[in-house]
Structure formats: C-alpha cells, structure tokens
Amino acid sequence: xxxxxxxxxxxxxxxxxxxxxxxxxxxxxxxxxxxxxxxxxxxxxxxxxxxxxxxxxxxxxxxxxxxxxxxxxxxxxxxxxxxxxxxxxxxxxxxxxxxxxxxxxxxxxxxxxxxxxxxxxxxxxxxxxxxxxxxxxxxxxxxxxxxxxxxxxxxxxxxxxxxxxxxxxxxxxxxxxxxxxxxxxxxxxxxxxxxxxxxxxxxxxxxxxxxxxxxxxxxxxxxxxxxxxxxxxxxxxxxxxxxxxxxxxxxxxxxxxxxxxxxxxxxxxxxxxxxxxxxxxxxxxxxxxxxxxxxxxxxxxxxxxxxxxxxxxxxxxxxxxxxxxxxxxxxxxxxxxxxxxxxxxxxxxxxxxxxxxxxxxxxxxxxxxxxxxxxxxxxxxxxxxxxxxxxxxxxxxx
Length: 398
Prior knowledge:
Helices cover 41% and strands 14% of the residues.
C-alpha cells in the first residue's frame, strides 16, 4: 500500500453511494488521499444484492471503488443509524446518491447530519434534481442522456437518437460533485461551516452540451446530428486511408490551407467555393469527398506524420486495446497498478489530473475492499469494544 503524501490526506469521507455517479465522485476524493469509509448493507439484510457495475471482483467494481475501506451497516435500524452518526462526528464529507426522498426516509439527510456535525460538506447526486416535477423520479444515465438532449445530436445524420458509448451523465455528475465538494471544503475554511452540495445527471449533461446548448439559447438554432463531422467547423472529421481511417481537424482557413498544401491538393485550396469557413460548411459533403480522394492514396501512419509535420491536427482512430498500447498513453502512465489480496496485481484507470508536488502513486493505496472487510477495524477506531462489536454482528446491524 502506498503511503506517500496526497492532497486530501486527513479528510474523512463517508460513502453511502451505489451504482456509478456517486462512486465516481467518491473515487475522485479517495484517489487523492481522503480516508473513505464505504457503507453497504450487511449480506444478511441485502440477500438479493445486485450491482449495475457487475460482480465485486469484476473489472468495473474494482475500477470504481479502489482506495476505500468497507463497513457493513444497516441504516434502516436505530442502532445502525447510531453508528452512522458516530462516524459523522469525525467526518468532513458525506456523499450519497439515493433517490431524492430516500435520505429523508432514512433520517440521514443534510439537516439531520448537520445537527451532529455542522462542519459537514454533504454531497448528493440525483437523477433530475432534488426538487421539481421530476425530483422523485429514479434516474439512470441513458434516461438523462435522452432527456438532456445529448442523444439527439449523437450519431449519423438521420440515424435517429444514439447514446454515447460511456455513461457520460453518471461520470460527469460524479466529477462535478467532487468539484463542488472541494469548493465546499474551501468555503468551510473561511466560514467554519459546511453546506449541502448537490447536482444531478440532468444538470450535468446540460452543462456538458456547452456550445451546443448556447447555440440554442443565443441563436435559437437546434443542433442536428453531425456524425463524425464537427458540428460547425469544416473540414473536421473521419477520412478513409489506404489501410483504415484517420481524424483530421482542419477547420479555419489557416489550417485548411496547410492541409491542402501538405496533401498537394492545389485544386482544393484554389476552389473559390471553399475559401471561408461558412463556405466550407455549406459544401461539407463535397469537400469531404474530395479530401477523401486524397487520403485514400496513402496509409494512415504516413498521413498522420505528414499532417502533424505541417501543423495540422491529425491522429489515428484506435480500439481501446490499441489506445493503451500507444506510446504516448504508455508515457502518461494513466493505467495504474493496485494489489488485490485475492486477485493479485490489477491495472485500473488512473486520474487525468497531474500534481507535481503530490502525484498519484504508481501503485494505488488500496484495492477495492470486499464487503465489510474493515468493519471491525473501523468500529474499533470509533471506540467500540469487542463485546459491543460482537453484539452488532449478532443483530445483523453490521
């Protein structure tokens, strides 16, 4: 287990999340050093346990819950809640992603937690917001992708709605919540008090629409599907080569002229119909066909070298195994090792942010814990003696 200093060392986090969005937020905190306690129902209580992220020893669960300790706790009992609030007394952060009303039903909502520890930063993720007409609806990633407008602009023109190939609403909501929690901790340093920080899958995907959302809000233009083409910049897209496909991004007149010169496409560069960005977008299909006629004449690697030497962004289109084998990806070291007691050495996906003084360790601190793996250890830290711990086990409280 790595013991190097990390920027969130010393912060205590209670994790009562499930599925993906909440655990993604907690992973951001755990990977950067927070002491995270993951709370789950005891096996005797949750005998029909099922996970959207697969089996506990599967790739998804192992990637999602590393750097945590695990405590089983029945929050539906008064004794279980008493243990929870003992944890709260020493905590800095609580993170949950129940349906909005569940935390109130359990009695572990922000106001209840605040009474025990007013310094708590309480983080929540819901499907569609904590209040409003859809506030009580269950929310999952694909539903939010559809409601949030993302599926309408993904895929080929005329194809019909297409989901993004990752659970982007879950992931972005988790990252946004982690950012919000850090802001809450910074603000607590000024005021001495915590606050409730919350986001939703819906709000997150709408923020991620970014210029496509602003395109409607300011210009009242509804973005259509653009497939592999950039929605507004031409030519930017996928082009065939002698042995596959490449991405070329040559929107903007300077880049377009450089691309034409590098390809030896004098006819393309001299065509008056293609001189401005608006002209090129108006004639997108024709210009893409004419570029494709050139790119088909050489293999991908040759075009990638030619274009990059000319200062034109160009790159390969990899499958995931090819991506991890790429020399630049290898250099970045984003695949990180972790040692699991039963599964041996695993590789998981590391963090995208690099800190020079407190870098993420080459080997992660902890593998994903087994169910309740640290229950007795954590209870002992709270001051519970062996007799009391045994009694909690006997009653299936832990």
